[in-house]
Amino acid sequence: MHNSDVSPQLDASPTDRFAMLKVPPKLGAAAIALGSMLVLWYVMSIYFKPWVPSIDSTVVAMIDKLGSGQFWDSFFLTLGRIFMAFICATFVGTALGLTIGLSERAEAFFQPLLALALAVPDPVYIIFAILALGTGEAAGFVALTIAVTPFVTNIVRSNIHARDKSLDEMAQIYHLPRNVRLMTVLAPQMVPALLTAVRFSFALSWKLVVVVEAIGQPNGIGADIFHSFRLLRMREVAAVAIIFIIAMQLLELGVLGRLEKRLTRWRS
Amino acid sequence: MSTEETNSVLKVEDLGVAYGASEAVAQLDFEIKRGEFVAILGPSGCGKSSMLNVISGLKAPSRGRVFVEEKELFTPKSKAPRLGYVFQSHRLLPWRTVRQNLEMALAPSGVPRSEWARKIDEILEILHIGQFKDTWPLRLSGGQRQRVSIARALVVNPSYILMDEPLSTLDEVTARSLRQELTGICQRTNATVVFVTHSIREAVYLADRILILTRGPGRVHEDYKVPLARPRDYDDPRISKIESDIIARVQAPWGLSNREDLDVA
Predict the structure, then answer these.
(1) How far apart are CA A174 and CA B19, in angstroms?
(2) What are residue B32's DSSP bridge partners?
(3) Number of folded domains in chain B?
(4) Is the N end or the C end of chain B the one with fewer CB atoms within 10 Å?
């Protein structure tokens, strides 16, 4: 077959082919990634049987879980814990980040502490909190807040340093009051950083909550996963984890995505 | 007090700015009267930025005194001057619409809130950007953004307006059109303008007077009164002649061996 005989459709790049199928390229790429993951899972479920559950048995387990009242009790309990820690870490981290970023004295004081806090592995906070406060709600809340706050602080602090300082000068020349400078000039510049911090805080919170529950709580999604693991019910471990991951992604895309779009609409 | 004294908007006496042992500005003296358009020309490193920082009230001088409308700045009781500033880049808040940017500057200026809308509409109309009142700055062209920046400077009823190479980032066609309108706008609003530029031709076209500074540390080498009536034509051969005349005057004090060495402001 000569080159000229080759169908133009076979010659086309993957992007062109998606265009021909009227599939948005991003969606197509995501579908390929997801498909590859499923293939990998399928292969692993054959080679690592029974430790990696099969796809169909996991789907059945997911349907069972979604129909179970006990699962939803655990789900909302964990969700409540995530929000408590996430909100607290975001507020404390943002306030600290602003303070450190705007004051040289505060930076001199907090910077070594921040470096230390960032270097401590998260499970250390969890273990210390459980040892100090027992296995109640307070231990998880404190451990999570302490673990997440330094990351939020660091993101906000770095972005304060990277802000457009020429706007500070403009604000000074036009005598804008301090509160206006903070809310109108500085805060909007921080929106992308704050959203990154919020996203990071949220992502880290829900991952750590599951760890905290697995180690030191009698209930919640983490405790359920750990319970299933001890009974070697791996399809239940996978089912609970997948449902939770999907729910967290939907929350992030639905709430944070919309918030971001609204706050940065001036860019469009 | 004489009439001449009451007309003084900005007066600088024996101004010096130093950073440690290094002197950026030395013994700068000049006075600008109400409604004057004064251009400032100087070679690179003549202390232009330091001088602007002082006369905008951002930095106290190391030596000398600055008076705005007869009141001395940088004394314990003095207030920062009420001025408009048109920067090289527009420095608008992109997350605020044109109107909101102007309102933000108006809020601390003492203009009653009831007058804001009228004042903003009036200034935007003068600058031919009334239709963009509720537009985000990122949707405007470079020239339109700079017009908004000029509107922000004018709207606050400033004692004087500092313009720091405001047309240097625009393309030549836009710069030419804005340059043409600028003198008319300033005359209509009776604004007092200190205009820093790197273009001698632009200075001659726009200004009533040109303060030619020496090499750093900057002093006033010459206070040059532009001998042309208004309105002026940017392509007028007389402007070219004055430009050449100024270049000849600055060649020795700026240490230039030929015209190609010319690197001003």
Answers:
(1) 25
(2) B10
(3) 1
(4) N
CB A197 within 8 A of CB A93: yes
The share of chain B scoring above pLDDT 90, in percent, equals 57
- Between chains, do A267 and B57 touch, taking CB under 8 Å as contact? no
| Residue range of the domain that includes B124 | 93-149
| Cβ partners under 8 Å of residue B55, min gap 6 | B10, B12, B66, B81, B162, B194
Q: What mean pLDDT is reported for chain A?
A: 85
Structure token pair of residue A107: 């930076």
- Cα separation, A246 vs A234, whole angstroms: 18
Interchain CB contact of A262 with B (< 8 Å): no
Task: Check residue B93 and give its pLDDT.
Answer: 95
Cβ pair B55, B113 in contact under 8 A: no
Of A166, A188, A266, the CB nearest to B138: A266
Q: What is the pLDDT of residues A71-91, one digit of tens each?
A: 899 889 988 988 888 889 889
Would you say residue B130 lies in a domain?
Answer: yes
The CA-based diameter of chain A, rounded to the nearest angstrom, is 76
A151, two tokens: 């990351």
Query: What pLDDT shows up at residue A13?
Result: 60
Q: How far does the CA of residue B167 sit from the closest CA of chain A (Å)?
A: 18
pTM for the whole thing?
Answer: 0.77
Of A98, A102, A96, A261, nearest to A192 by C-alpha is A261
A185 closest CB neighbour out of B82, B93, B152: B93
pLDDT of B258 above 90: no
Nearest residue to B213 (alpha-carbon basis) of B12, B5, B9 = B12
